[in-house]
TrEMBL record:
<dbReference type="Pfam" id="PF13409">
    <property type="entry name" value="GST_N_2"/>
</dbReference>
<dbReference type="InterPro" id="IPR040079">
    <property type="entry name" value="Glutathione_S-Trfase"/>
</dbReference>
<dbReference type="InterPro" id="IPR004045">
    <property type="entry name" value="Glutathione_S-Trfase_N"/>
</dbReference>
<dbReference type="InterPro" id="IPR010987">
    <property type="entry name" value="Glutathione-S-Trfase_C-like"/>
</dbReference>
<dbReference type="InterPro" id="IPR050983">
    <property type="entry name" value="GST_Omega/HSP26"/>
</dbReference>
<protein>
    <recommendedName>
        <fullName>GST N-terminal domain-containing protein</fullName>
    </recommendedName>
</protein>
<dbReference type="Pfam" id="PF13410">
    <property type="entry name" value="GST_C_2"/>
</dbReference>
<dbReference type="GO" id="GO:0005737">
    <property type="term" value="C:cytoplasm"/>
</dbReference>
<feature type="domain" description="GST C-terminal">
    <location>
        <begin position="156"/>
        <end position="290"/>
    </location>
</feature>
<dbReference type="InterPro" id="IPR036282">
    <property type="entry name" value="Glutathione-S-Trfase_C_sf"/>
</dbReference>
<dbReference type="InterPro" id="IPR036249">
    <property type="entry name" value="Thioredoxin-like_sf"/>
</dbReference>
<feature type="domain" description="GST N-terminal">
    <location>
        <begin position="70"/>
        <end position="150"/>
    </location>
</feature>
Length: 467
Protein backbone atom coordinates (compact mmCIF):
# COMPACT_ATOMS: atom_id res chain seq x y z
CA UNK A 1 0.00 0.00 0.00
CA UNK A 2 2.79 2.38 0.95
CA UNK A 3 4.53 1.66 -2.36
CA UNK A 4 1.33 2.39 -4.23
CA UNK A 5 0.87 5.79 -2.56
CA UNK A 6 4.45 6.60 -3.35
CA UNK A 7 4.01 5.73 -6.98
CA UNK A 8 0.95 7.99 -7.28
CA UNK A 9 2.94 10.74 -5.72
CA UNK A 10 5.72 10.13 -8.22
CA UNK A 11 3.29 10.27 -11.11
CA UNK A 12 1.73 13.46 -9.80
CA UNK A 13 5.09 15.14 -9.63
CA UNK A 14 6.09 13.85 -13.05
CA UNK A 15 2.81 15.10 -14.51
CA UNK A 16 3.29 18.56 -13.06
CA UNK A 17 6.79 18.77 -14.41
CA UNK A 18 5.86 17.56 -17.84
CA UNK A 19 2.77 19.66 -18.25
CA UNK A 20 3.51 22.98 -16.59
CA UNK A 21 5.70 24.65 -19.20
CA UNK A 22 4.23 23.38 -22.48
CA UNK A 23 0.64 23.68 -21.32
CA UNK A 24 0.99 27.40 -20.85
CA UNK A 25 1.61 27.70 -24.55
CA UNK A 26 -1.38 25.66 -25.65
CA UNK A 27 -4.65 27.05 -26.98
CA UNK A 28 -7.51 26.44 -24.55
CA UNK A 29 -9.58 24.25 -26.84
CA UNK A 30 -6.69 21.83 -27.15
CA UNK A 31 -6.31 21.61 -23.39
CA UNK A 32 -9.73 20.04 -23.28
CA UNK A 33 -8.48 17.13 -25.39
CA UNK A 34 -5.90 16.02 -22.88
CA UNK A 35 -7.41 12.73 -21.80
CA UNK A 36 -5.46 12.30 -18.61
CA UNK A 37 -5.06 13.57 -15.15
CA UNK A 38 -2.92 11.84 -12.61
CA UNK A 39 -5.69 10.72 -10.35
CA UNK A 40 -7.59 9.16 -13.29
CA UNK A 41 -4.63 7.53 -14.95
CA UNK A 42 -5.09 3.77 -15.31
CA UNK A 43 -2.85 1.89 -12.98
CA UNK A 44 -0.60 0.26 -15.57
CA UNK A 45 2.32 -0.25 -13.28
CA UNK A 46 2.83 -3.22 -11.01
CA UNK A 47 3.47 -3.30 -7.29
CA UNK A 48 6.98 -4.08 -6.14
CA UNK A 49 6.58 -7.81 -5.69
CA UNK A 50 5.14 -8.13 -9.21
CA UNK A 51 8.04 -6.18 -10.62
CA UNK A 52 10.48 -8.52 -8.86
CA UNK A 53 8.53 -11.52 -10.14
CA UNK A 54 8.83 -10.18 -13.66
CA UNK A 55 12.60 -9.73 -13.36
CA UNK A 56 12.90 -13.21 -11.87
CA UNK A 57 11.00 -14.61 -14.85
CA UNK A 58 13.37 -12.85 -17.27
CA UNK A 59 16.40 -14.02 -15.30
CA UNK A 60 15.16 -17.58 -15.39
CA UNK A 61 14.77 -17.35 -19.16
CA UNK A 62 18.35 -16.11 -19.67
CA UNK A 63 20.62 -17.55 -16.99
CA UNK A 64 24.22 -16.22 -16.95
CA UNK A 65 26.76 -18.19 -18.94
CA UNK A 66 29.57 -20.02 -17.18
CA UNK A 67 32.92 -18.48 -18.14
CA UNK A 68 35.93 -20.78 -18.72
CA UNK A 69 38.75 -20.67 -16.16
CA UNK A 70 40.85 -17.57 -16.87
CA UNK A 71 44.49 -18.06 -17.88
CA UNK A 72 45.49 -14.51 -16.90
CA UNK A 73 44.23 -11.09 -15.82
CA UNK A 74 44.16 -8.12 -18.18
CA UNK A 75 44.29 -4.63 -16.66
CA UNK A 76 42.79 -2.08 -19.02
CA UNK A 77 41.12 1.32 -18.90
CA UNK A 78 37.53 1.69 -17.71
CA UNK A 79 36.25 3.43 -20.85
CA UNK A 80 37.69 1.04 -23.43
CA UNK A 81 39.40 4.01 -25.11
CA UNK A 82 43.05 3.04 -24.64
CA UNK A 83 44.34 1.82 -28.03
CA UNK A 84 47.26 -0.03 -26.42
CA UNK A 85 44.82 -1.99 -24.26
CA UNK A 86 42.61 -2.69 -27.25
CA UNK A 87 45.56 -4.32 -29.08
CA UNK A 88 46.13 -6.81 -26.30
CA UNK A 89 42.42 -7.34 -25.78
CA UNK A 90 42.01 -8.12 -29.50
CA UNK A 91 44.95 -10.52 -29.45
CA UNK A 92 43.48 -12.40 -26.47
CA UNK A 93 40.15 -12.84 -28.25
CA UNK A 94 41.80 -13.76 -31.55
CA UNK A 95 43.85 -16.46 -29.82
CA UNK A 96 40.90 -17.62 -27.74
CA UNK A 97 42.76 -17.22 -24.43
CA UNK A 98 40.27 -17.00 -21.53
CA UNK A 99 41.03 -14.06 -19.23
CA UNK A 100 39.75 -12.02 -16.32
CA UNK A 101 39.59 -8.26 -16.47
CA UNK A 102 40.31 -5.49 -13.98
CA UNK A 103 39.30 -2.05 -15.12
CA UNK A 104 41.57 0.81 -14.06
CA UNK A 105 40.21 4.34 -13.78
CA UNK A 106 42.96 6.40 -15.40
CA UNK A 107 41.83 9.59 -13.67
CA UNK A 108 42.24 8.00 -10.27
CA UNK A 109 44.53 5.00 -10.53
CA UNK A 110 44.47 2.80 -7.45
CA UNK A 111 47.64 2.75 -5.33
CA UNK A 112 47.99 -1.01 -5.68
CA UNK A 113 48.11 -0.65 -9.47
CA UNK A 114 50.77 2.05 -9.31
CA UNK A 115 52.83 -0.17 -7.02
CA UNK A 116 52.36 -3.22 -9.21
CA UNK A 117 53.21 -1.61 -12.60
CA UNK A 118 56.37 0.55 -12.64
CA UNK A 119 55.19 2.74 -15.57
CA UNK A 120 51.70 2.97 -13.93
CA UNK A 121 50.28 2.79 -17.48
CA UNK A 122 47.68 0.42 -18.88
CA UNK A 123 47.66 -2.22 -20.26
CA UNK A 124 49.31 -4.79 -18.02
CA UNK A 125 48.69 -8.48 -17.53
CA UNK A 126 49.21 -10.82 -14.62
CA UNK A 127 50.24 -14.28 -15.74
CA UNK A 128 50.62 -16.53 -12.69
CA UNK A 129 52.59 -14.32 -10.32
CA UNK A 130 54.32 -12.46 -13.15
CA UNK A 131 53.23 -8.92 -14.01
CA UNK A 132 53.98 -7.73 -17.57
CA UNK A 133 53.43 -4.23 -19.01
CA UNK A 134 53.95 -2.39 -22.32
CA UNK A 135 51.63 -3.63 -25.06
CA UNK A 136 54.48 -4.73 -27.30
CA UNK A 137 56.11 -6.84 -24.56
CA UNK A 138 52.79 -8.27 -23.44
CA UNK A 139 51.83 -9.32 -26.96
CA UNK A 140 55.14 -10.98 -27.71
CA UNK A 141 55.03 -12.80 -24.37
CA UNK A 142 51.53 -14.04 -25.15
CA UNK A 143 52.73 -15.35 -28.51
CA UNK A 144 55.49 -17.30 -26.74
CA UNK A 145 53.41 -18.68 -23.88
CA UNK A 146 50.27 -19.43 -25.92
CA UNK A 147 51.63 -20.76 -29.22
CA UNK A 148 48.27 -22.17 -30.38
CA UNK A 149 46.68 -19.93 -33.03
CA UNK A 150 49.91 -17.99 -33.68
CA UNK A 151 49.63 -14.37 -34.80
CA UNK A 152 53.32 -14.16 -35.68
CA UNK A 153 54.81 -16.64 -38.16
CA UNK A 154 57.54 -18.55 -36.38
CA UNK A 155 61.29 -18.66 -36.98
CA UNK A 156 63.36 -17.09 -39.70
CA UNK A 157 60.74 -17.18 -42.43
CA UNK A 158 60.28 -14.38 -44.98
CA UNK A 159 56.79 -13.79 -43.61
CA UNK A 160 58.21 -13.19 -40.15
CA UNK A 161 60.82 -10.84 -41.52
CA UNK A 162 58.19 -8.76 -43.32
CA UNK A 163 56.01 -8.51 -40.23
CA UNK A 164 58.97 -7.55 -38.01
CA UNK A 165 60.01 -4.87 -40.46
CA UNK A 166 56.49 -3.44 -40.60
CA UNK A 167 56.07 -3.68 -36.83
CA UNK A 168 59.30 -1.71 -36.39
CA UNK A 169 57.84 1.18 -38.42
CA UNK A 170 54.50 1.11 -36.65
CA UNK A 171 55.21 3.51 -33.75
CA UNK A 172 56.54 6.28 -36.04
CA UNK A 173 53.64 5.90 -38.47
CA UNK A 174 51.08 6.02 -35.68
CA UNK A 175 52.82 9.05 -34.18
CA UNK A 176 52.36 10.82 -37.54
CA UNK A 177 48.68 9.89 -37.41
CA UNK A 178 48.30 11.22 -33.88
CA UNK A 179 50.08 14.46 -34.79
CA UNK A 180 47.54 15.05 -37.54
CA UNK A 181 44.46 13.78 -35.71
CA UNK A 182 45.04 15.77 -32.53
CA UNK A 183 46.99 18.68 -34.06
CA UNK A 184 44.14 21.13 -33.51
CA UNK A 185 44.96 20.95 -29.81
CA UNK A 186 48.39 22.43 -30.54
CA UNK A 187 47.07 25.66 -32.15
CA UNK A 188 49.04 25.31 -35.38
CA UNK A 189 49.36 27.52 -38.41
CA UNK A 190 47.63 26.49 -41.65
CA UNK A 191 51.01 25.45 -43.10
CA UNK A 192 51.79 23.25 -40.12
CA UNK A 193 48.37 21.58 -40.38
CA UNK A 194 48.97 20.96 -44.11
CA UNK A 195 52.38 19.46 -43.28
CA UNK A 196 50.89 17.08 -40.77
CA UNK A 197 48.13 16.16 -43.17
CA UNK A 198 50.70 15.29 -45.84
CA UNK A 199 52.68 13.25 -43.32
CA UNK A 200 49.55 11.29 -42.36
CA UNK A 201 48.63 10.74 -46.00
CA UNK A 202 52.15 9.39 -46.51
CA UNK A 203 51.58 6.94 -43.69
CA UNK A 204 48.35 5.72 -45.29
CA UNK A 205 50.12 5.47 -48.68
CA UNK A 206 52.72 3.20 -47.06
CA UNK A 207 50.05 0.99 -45.52
CA UNK A 208 48.28 0.82 -48.87
CA UNK A 209 51.50 -0.22 -50.63
CA UNK A 210 52.27 -2.78 -47.90
CA UNK A 211 48.84 -4.41 -48.16
CA UNK A 212 49.11 -4.58 -51.95
CA UNK A 213 52.65 -5.96 -51.97
CA UNK A 214 51.71 -8.91 -49.74
CA UNK A 215 48.36 -9.49 -51.46
CA UNK A 216 46.01 -8.43 -48.63
CA UNK A 217 43.47 -8.27 -47.28
CA UNK A 218 45.44 -7.93 -44.00
CA UNK A 219 48.46 -5.72 -43.39
CA UNK A 220 50.92 -8.57 -43.92
CA UNK A 221 49.08 -10.99 -46.17
CA UNK A 222 46.09 -13.29 -46.09
CA UNK A 223 46.02 -13.83 -42.33
CA UNK A 224 45.28 -11.58 -39.39
CA UNK A 225 48.52 -10.97 -37.46
CA UNK A 226 49.89 -8.90 -34.60
CA UNK A 227 50.51 -6.14 -37.12
CA UNK A 228 46.75 -5.74 -37.68
CA UNK A 229 46.18 -5.71 -33.93
CA UNK A 230 48.74 -2.90 -33.58
CA UNK A 231 47.02 -0.63 -36.11
CA UNK A 232 43.33 -1.52 -35.70
CA UNK A 233 42.55 0.53 -32.56
CA UNK A 234 43.92 3.71 -34.17
CA UNK A 235 42.60 3.31 -37.72
CA UNK A 236 39.17 2.37 -36.36
CA UNK A 237 38.72 5.61 -34.42
CA UNK A 238 40.34 7.85 -37.03
CA UNK A 239 38.06 6.45 -39.75
CA UNK A 240 35.02 7.63 -37.75
CA UNK A 241 36.41 10.76 -36.12
CA UNK A 242 38.55 12.47 -38.78
CA UNK A 243 35.66 13.09 -41.21
CA UNK A 244 34.05 15.09 -38.38
CA UNK A 245 37.03 16.88 -36.97
CA UNK A 246 39.15 17.50 -40.10
CA UNK A 247 36.93 16.52 -43.04
CA UNK A 248 39.45 13.76 -43.74
CA UNK A 249 38.13 10.44 -45.04
CA UNK A 250 40.23 7.30 -44.73
CA UNK A 251 37.54 4.97 -46.01
CA UNK A 252 36.03 5.14 -49.48
CA UNK A 253 38.56 7.78 -50.44
CA UNK A 254 39.56 6.15 -53.79
CA UNK A 255 43.19 6.81 -52.80
CA UNK A 256 43.44 3.82 -50.43
CA UNK A 257 41.33 0.96 -51.87
CA UNK A 258 43.45 -1.80 -50.32
CA UNK A 259 42.97 -0.14 -46.93
CA UNK A 260 39.22 -0.20 -47.56
CA UNK A 261 39.54 -3.94 -48.12
CA UNK A 262 41.47 -4.19 -44.83
CA UNK A 263 38.60 -2.53 -42.91
CA UNK A 264 36.18 -5.01 -44.49
CA UNK A 265 38.42 -7.98 -43.62
CA UNK A 266 38.69 -6.75 -40.03
CA UNK A 267 34.90 -6.39 -39.83
CA UNK A 268 34.55 -10.01 -40.84
CA UNK A 269 36.81 -11.13 -37.99
CA UNK A 270 34.63 -12.26 -35.04
CA UNK A 271 37.33 -11.48 -32.44
CA UNK A 272 37.29 -7.90 -33.65
CA UNK A 273 33.74 -7.03 -34.61
CA UNK A 274 32.06 -9.13 -31.92
CA UNK A 275 34.37 -8.15 -29.08
CA UNK A 276 36.55 -5.08 -29.16
CA UNK A 277 35.50 -2.86 -32.05
CA UNK A 278 33.92 0.46 -31.07
CA UNK A 279 30.76 1.39 -32.96
CA UNK A 280 30.19 4.54 -35.00
CA UNK A 281 27.97 6.07 -32.31
CA UNK A 282 30.51 5.58 -29.53
CA UNK A 283 33.50 6.95 -31.46
CA UNK A 284 31.43 9.89 -32.62
CA UNK A 285 30.18 10.64 -29.10
CA UNK A 286 33.79 10.34 -27.88
CA UNK A 287 34.77 13.27 -30.15
CA UNK A 288 32.69 15.61 -28.04
CA UNK A 289 33.90 13.99 -24.79
CA UNK A 290 37.57 14.21 -25.84
CA UNK A 291 37.22 17.79 -27.13
CA UNK A 292 35.85 18.88 -23.76
CA UNK A 293 38.40 16.78 -21.85
CA UNK A 294 41.43 18.12 -23.73
CA UNK A 295 40.36 21.78 -24.00
CA UNK A 296 43.50 23.81 -23.12
CA UNK A 297 43.04 25.22 -19.58
CA UNK A 298 39.48 23.95 -19.69
CA UNK A 299 38.52 26.76 -22.14
CA UNK A 300 36.49 25.68 -25.14
CA UNK A 301 37.34 27.75 -28.22
CA UNK A 302 34.73 28.68 -30.82
CA UNK A 303 36.25 26.08 -33.13
CA UNK A 304 35.99 23.38 -30.46
CA UNK A 305 32.43 24.40 -29.61
CA UNK A 306 31.50 24.01 -33.30
CA UNK A 307 33.14 20.56 -33.38
CA UNK A 308 31.29 19.49 -30.23
CA UNK A 309 28.01 20.56 -31.82
CA UNK A 310 28.80 18.68 -35.05
CA UNK A 311 29.82 15.58 -33.11
CA UNK A 312 26.71 15.63 -30.91
CA UNK A 313 24.36 15.85 -33.86
CA UNK A 314 26.31 13.23 -35.84
CA UNK A 315 26.15 10.95 -32.76
CA UNK A 316 22.38 11.42 -32.49
CA UNK A 317 22.03 10.55 -36.20
CA UNK A 318 24.32 7.49 -35.83
CA UNK A 319 22.29 6.24 -32.87
CA UNK A 320 19.14 6.13 -34.98
CA UNK A 321 20.72 4.50 -38.00
CA UNK A 322 22.63 1.47 -36.85
CA UNK A 323 20.72 -1.57 -38.01
CA UNK A 324 21.45 -4.89 -36.32
CA UNK A 325 23.18 -7.56 -38.38
CA UNK A 326 21.13 -9.54 -40.88
CA UNK A 327 22.94 -12.81 -40.05
CA UNK A 328 20.17 -14.54 -38.10
CA UNK A 329 22.23 -16.68 -35.73
CA UNK A 330 24.72 -13.89 -34.97
CA UNK A 331 21.80 -11.54 -34.31
CA UNK A 332 20.15 -14.08 -32.01
CA UNK A 333 23.32 -14.46 -29.93
CA UNK A 334 23.80 -10.70 -29.87
CA UNK A 335 20.25 -10.15 -28.60
CA UNK A 336 20.83 -12.73 -25.86
CA UNK A 337 24.10 -11.05 -24.84
CA UNK A 338 22.34 -7.68 -24.66
CA UNK A 339 19.47 -9.13 -22.60
CA UNK A 340 21.91 -10.68 -20.13
CA UNK A 341 23.76 -7.41 -19.85
CA UNK A 342 20.56 -5.57 -18.93
CA UNK A 343 19.69 -8.25 -16.41
CA UNK A 344 23.10 -8.10 -14.74
CA UNK A 345 23.46 -4.33 -14.79
CA UNK A 346 19.98 -2.99 -14.30
CA UNK A 347 20.72 -1.37 -10.94
CA UNK A 348 23.73 0.49 -12.34
CA UNK A 349 21.73 1.60 -15.39
CA UNK A 350 18.88 2.87 -13.22
CA UNK A 351 21.35 4.80 -11.06
CA UNK A 352 23.12 6.31 -14.07
CA UNK A 353 19.91 7.24 -15.87
CA UNK A 354 18.66 9.21 -12.87
CA UNK A 355 21.99 10.55 -11.60
CA UNK A 356 21.49 14.30 -11.61
CA UNK A 357 25.10 14.83 -10.54
CA UNK A 358 26.61 12.77 -13.34
CA UNK A 359 30.25 13.52 -14.14
CA UNK A 360 30.45 12.16 -17.67
CA UNK A 361 28.48 13.15 -20.79
CA UNK A 362 26.86 15.88 -18.71
CA UNK A 363 25.26 17.31 -21.87
CA UNK A 364 23.07 14.19 -22.03
CA UNK A 365 20.22 15.05 -19.73
CA UNK A 366 19.39 12.42 -17.12
CA UNK A 367 15.86 11.73 -15.90
CA UNK A 368 14.57 13.07 -12.63
CA UNK A 369 15.14 10.48 -9.86
CA UNK A 370 11.39 10.37 -9.27
CA UNK A 371 10.99 8.98 -12.80
CA UNK A 372 13.12 5.93 -12.01
CA UNK A 373 10.11 3.65 -12.35
CA UNK A 374 9.81 4.51 -16.04
CA UNK A 375 13.43 3.68 -16.66
CA UNK A 376 12.92 0.39 -14.86
CA UNK A 377 9.77 -0.38 -16.83
CA UNK A 378 11.50 0.42 -20.10
CA UNK A 379 14.47 -1.79 -19.18
CA UNK A 380 12.14 -4.66 -18.37
CA UNK A 381 10.38 -4.28 -21.70
CA UNK A 382 13.69 -4.01 -23.58
CA UNK A 383 14.98 -7.19 -21.89
CA UNK A 384 11.81 -9.03 -22.69
CA UNK A 385 11.90 -7.98 -26.37
CA UNK A 386 15.58 -8.87 -26.67
CA UNK A 387 14.82 -12.34 -25.34
CA UNK A 388 12.05 -12.64 -27.89
CA UNK A 389 14.50 -11.68 -30.64
CA UNK A 390 16.85 -14.34 -29.27
CA UNK A 391 13.98 -16.88 -29.54
CA UNK A 392 14.12 -17.44 -25.79
CA UNK A 393 10.72 -18.18 -24.38
CA UNK A 394 9.63 -16.02 -21.44
CA UNK A 395 6.51 -17.88 -20.48
CA UNK A 396 5.16 -17.69 -16.93
CA UNK A 397 4.70 -21.12 -15.36
CA UNK A 398 1.17 -22.47 -14.75
CA UNK A 399 1.10 -21.02 -11.23
CA UNK A 400 2.26 -17.59 -12.37
CA UNK A 401 -0.06 -14.91 -13.66
CA UNK A 402 0.13 -13.55 -17.18
CA UNK A 403 1.82 -10.18 -16.84
CA UNK A 404 0.51 -7.02 -18.48
CA UNK A 405 2.55 -5.28 -21.22
CA UNK A 406 4.79 -2.55 -19.94
CA UNK A 407 4.01 -0.16 -22.73
CA UNK A 408 0.43 0.20 -23.82
CA UNK A 409 -1.99 2.56 -25.43
CA UNK A 410 -3.68 3.00 -22.03
CA UNK A 411 -0.59 4.56 -20.48
CA UNK A 412 -0.91 8.14 -19.37
CA UNK A 413 0.91 10.33 -21.92
CA UNK A 414 3.39 11.68 -19.38
CA UNK A 415 4.34 8.09 -18.51
CA UNK A 416 4.87 7.27 -22.17
CA UNK A 417 7.03 10.37 -22.57
CA UNK A 418 9.18 9.34 -19.60
CA UNK A 419 9.58 5.81 -21.02
CA UNK A 420 10.65 7.23 -24.39
CA UNK A 421 13.13 9.58 -22.72
CA UNK A 422 14.52 6.68 -20.73
CA UNK A 423 14.98 4.56 -23.87
CA UNK A 424 16.80 7.33 -25.73
CA UNK A 425 18.93 8.13 -22.71
CA UNK A 426 20.10 4.55 -22.19
CA UNK A 427 20.95 4.28 -25.88
CA UNK A 428 22.95 7.54 -25.72
CA UNK A 429 24.87 6.43 -22.63
CA UNK A 430 25.72 3.05 -24.10
CA UNK A 431 29.38 3.04 -25.09
CA UNK A 432 30.89 0.30 -27.25
CA UNK A 433 32.94 -1.69 -26.41
CA UNK A 434 33.02 -0.34 -22.84
CA UNK A 435 29.54 -1.57 -21.94
CA UNK A 436 28.74 -4.11 -24.60
CA UNK A 437 30.16 -5.51 -27.82
CA UNK A 438 29.10 -3.79 -31.05
CA UNK A 439 26.70 -6.46 -32.30
CA UNK A 440 24.88 -6.77 -28.98
CA UNK A 441 24.76 -2.99 -28.75
CA UNK A 442 23.20 -2.78 -32.23
CA UNK A 443 20.41 -5.12 -31.07
CA UNK A 444 19.92 -3.13 -27.89
CA UNK A 445 19.94 0.25 -29.65
CA UNK A 446 17.43 -1.07 -32.15
CA UNK A 447 15.07 -2.33 -29.41
CA UNK A 448 15.44 0.95 -27.50
CA UNK A 449 14.69 2.93 -30.65
CA UNK A 450 11.62 0.79 -31.32
CA UNK A 451 10.42 1.33 -27.73
CA UNK A 452 11.06 5.06 -27.82
CA UNK A 453 9.10 5.40 -31.07
CA UNK A 454 6.20 3.37 -29.70
CA UNK A 455 6.10 5.29 -26.45
CA UNK A 456 6.27 8.60 -28.31
CA UNK A 457 3.38 7.48 -30.51
CA UNK A 458 1.32 6.58 -27.41
CA UNK A 459 2.12 9.95 -25.88
CA UNK A 460 1.19 11.69 -29.10
CA UNK A 461 -2.13 9.96 -29.61
CA UNK A 462 -2.99 9.85 -25.89
CA UNK A 463 -2.50 13.57 -25.53
CA UNK A 464 -4.38 14.46 -28.67
CA UNK A 465 -1.16 15.39 -30.42
CA UNK A 466 0.07 17.68 -27.67
CA UNK A 467 2.99 15.67 -26.23
N1 LIG B 1 53.80 2.33 -24.53
C1 LIG B 1 52.68 1.95 -23.72
C2 LIG B 1 51.66 3.07 -23.77
C3 LIG B 1 50.51 2.84 -22.80
C4 LIG B 1 49.74 4.14 -22.54
O1 LIG B 1 50.10 5.22 -22.95
N2 LIG B 1 48.62 3.99 -21.81
C5 LIG B 1 47.84 5.14 -21.43
C6 LIG B 1 46.38 4.96 -21.81
S1 LIG B 1 46.13 5.04 -23.55
C7 LIG B 1 47.84 5.31 -19.91
O2 LIG B 1 47.96 4.36 -19.17
N3 LIG B 1 47.65 6.55 -19.45
C8 LIG B 1 47.54 6.84 -18.05
C9 LIG B 1 48.54 7.84 -17.60
O3 LIG B 1 49.20 8.45 -18.44
O4 LIG B 1 48.64 8.01 -16.38
C10 LIG B 1 52.10 0.62 -24.23
O5 LIG B 1 52.26 0.33 -25.43
O6 LIG B 1 51.56 -0.17 -23.42
Amino acid sequence: QEGHEHSLDVRARAAMRLTSAPLLLLPLERLACIPWRVSHAPRAQLVDSEVQAYWALLERAAPPTVAPTPALTLYRDTNGWCPFCERVWLQLHAKGIPFDEELINLRDKPEWYKEMVPTTLVPAIKLGSEVIWESDTIMRTLEERFPEKPLLPSGDTDEREIIEERLAGCADMLAAGARFAYGSRDSLSADEVAGRRAEFEGMLDTLEANISSTGGPFLAGADFSLLDAFYAPFLERWAVQLPLSLDFHIRQSLRWPALDGWFDAMDALPAYRQKVKGDAYSWTAAVSAFTRMFAPNGTISDESAALIKRADSAAAAAMRSMPPTEEAEVARQAALTAARKLLENREAILADATNTEAKSQTHIERLDPCDVEYVERMLREATSRLLKRASVSVEPSDEEEELPPMLSRTMAPHEAVACAQAARLVSARLCVPRDLDGLAAAELRSVLHELACEAEAFAWSGSGGLL
